[in-house]
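Lab notebook: predicted structure, single chain.

Context: the supervisor wants predicted structures on file for every construct in the current expression panel, including those that have not yet been purified. This is the next one on the list. No modifications to the sequence; it matches the entry in the shared construct table.
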Amino acid sequence: MDEVIFNRKPGLRVVRGPDWEGQDEDCCEGHVGTVLETGGQFGCKTPDKYVTVIWDSGFKGCYRAGHKGAYDLRVLDNNQCGVFHLSTKCSGCQDRDIKGFRWKCAICPSVDLCTACYMSDKHDSIHVFTRYDTPESDGVRVPPRCNSENDKQLAMGIFKDALVTRGPDWGWQNQDGGAGQTGKVVNIIKWDRNYIGEVKVRWKSGSEWSYRLGPDGKVDLKCVVASTGGYYYKSHLPVVGKMKNDTNETPEAVTENYRQILRRSALSAELTSCDPSRFGVGYRVVRGPDWNCGNQDGGEGFVGTIAETLGQGFGKPPINFVNVIWDTGSMGVYRAGHEDKFDLRVFDIGVDGTKHESVMCDSCMMEDIRGIRWKCSQCKNANLCSQCYSDDRHDISHQFLRYDSPDPKKIFKVRKRCESQKVQVMGIFPGATVSRVREGKCDDDYAGNGNVGRVVSIADSGKSSFRTAVTVQWPSGSQMTIHSGHNGNIELKCVKAAPGGFYYRNHMPIFGKEPPPCAAQRERFKVGDQVKIAVDISQLKRLQQGHGGLPDNMNQHLDSVGKVSRINEEDDVVVKFGDSGPYTFNPAGLTKVKLKFPNDPFAPSNPKDGCSSRKMAKTSSHSNSSRGSSEMSTPRYQPQCKICLEQDACITFIPCGHFASCRYCASRLTNCAICRREITERQLTFIP
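Prediction complete. Output recorded below exactly as produced.
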């Protein structure tokens, strides 16, 4: 059966779709209707790329199913069209030959769900599923249900306990007791061997009869009082008239790809830095700013390991998601940028071998700090490793810079520890009791199934992977060093967690989110600095979120030079552009404007060039009395505007005579940018 035609077949039960423009002719969002006719077929009245729908309320309308790229409807259920998956049993309700959509877990090989069980959150809601619309269709992956809570919608219409009356296709004489009589829906079952579209109604007379709701596009009833039909995840449903076929894999092949997530020892992580915007297998993580998955991690502070970074072609799972195995043994898929949501923070990046050469921790004396480096911004050469930083070594009232890698450009300022919230770390740390997982490769003589060992210490997996193994003592007394994150290889799970210190929640990198590239510039600005916007308007809009927003008139200041009036308590920079402002800026969006130029006699002299400076002063001393007039008549040639450093200079300031600005910048200055004298006149000057 052609999938596109099937996706518009009469009998489909539908709800509002992504491009819905109708009013409340369906009653309201969530109310269900039935496709009566699809356009583009011989003899039908419905236009091509449209479908005619009758809503359970009785209203009939025509809706777009691809016309000019617009889609008004989603398919809620297709089992009324005779779809069933032979010999596939639902793992939830145990119904054989799943009717309608088949939902296959992409992680557990034997789990299939019918639509009712899938939408009622049977099986683990953190697992990714693949939807199969028909037995022949390609699988379409959908995000984990735990990450789609805001996408849930209650279905309403002709369901059990709804009150109904005669509908448009009624042909059953007076079984209902006569026109206008109402009955109550007792059950919805199958119309014949293939169709689940029979509605059993008990009329006021006490008689019970069955009627069609979808089979062959026939609807015998309409709703008087709607009933609830459970919830559905809007974005998990197919769109009427549109097929999203992103893979040709069989359900078994999809599952096998996901099962490899737990066998990561064969897949190396190509990581050279700890930039948290680069997904890293083996990173140790904790819950992040957008976490909405309850206590799947064991509770705030519990640590997990990234076992697979999704969206990179390996089995083609969803983009901007990652798979995490928590120390408790549970596993889930979490957002790392999907819809601009970030569920995780990075706790430790030792797996990628990040080392800060020749930088020693001032507290524990660790040479070549491994992982994240913390540098005091107030004390010269004061550096801490992550452990000592979280243990409050050094003055906690001092502000620190976070170095995510040896790259000097990857520096990020964090708040003072005395003003920040601490969280205790829990998981596989010294003192924890652990057991092997199924995928572990430990010697059964030491760690057979069911044996519990005690973690003695945290170890390295080699010279380029730090803190990615643990030493465990088993009941036999023997000790083994076992992988715990190296290349995503997880061989242990926690039976009883142990504390592993603390971390400052908002000081840790957000996994999958690249911090502003110039965040370290915050400490460079001071009151009185001349600054300009350093990014384009789209970047500025992103940077300004949470930093004062983007004013409507900001476009006119993109090329202007402003003055820093103050630094607020959040380290944001407050700037005035002449008489306009003040405006609050994320410091990552600003850059200083340097006003010292080699040909400027009013600029401070270079101490390394004292002789030439003295010589210049001696040579020019005889003309000091006439400096103003000579400069005004013969302006000093400076080819570039000293403000924007982009346009040619064409304006001479009077009375000082400095030739220093383009027209645009000159119109916004009240004082000369070189000598600070007040400008009384601006003279357009052309250099031959």
